Amino acid sequence: MDGVEIRDDRDAGRLEAVAGGEVLGRIEYFVLDDPAHALVPVHTVVEPAHEGKGIAGSLARELYALAAREGTVVAPLCPYVVRWAARHPEEAPPADPDVLRAAKRWLAEHPERF
After folding, report:
1. How far is residue 45 from each of residues 14, 87, 94, 100, measured CA to CA in Å?
2. pTM of the full predicted structure?
3. pLDDT score at 1
4. How far is CA 4 from each of CA 21, 32, 82, 111, rounded to the nearest angstrom?
């Protein structure tokens, strides 16, 4: 992925893969505070012209790395991130079931967010 930068737009809840000023793909997420601090990915999107180039996997890897740098966890609700995490357990520790339940509750209570 030469020339692709991954940047975190925490205020918008997006981790974006950008090249030449164009957003090639993104993971949309929210931050959960209770019962624990967690990054909760909900959707992964790669623009059709850029599919199959490893962008989604790079975004998932960076999301877990970002969480590790912040000393927090990832509680994935996004099907792609769930599958990626299952294939990369050395990089993607499983989330506590209580945190996952809380993330699902938060998402159900905020349907307008995604």
Report:
1. 11, 19, 22, 21
2. 0.93
3. 62
4. 10, 28, 23, 31
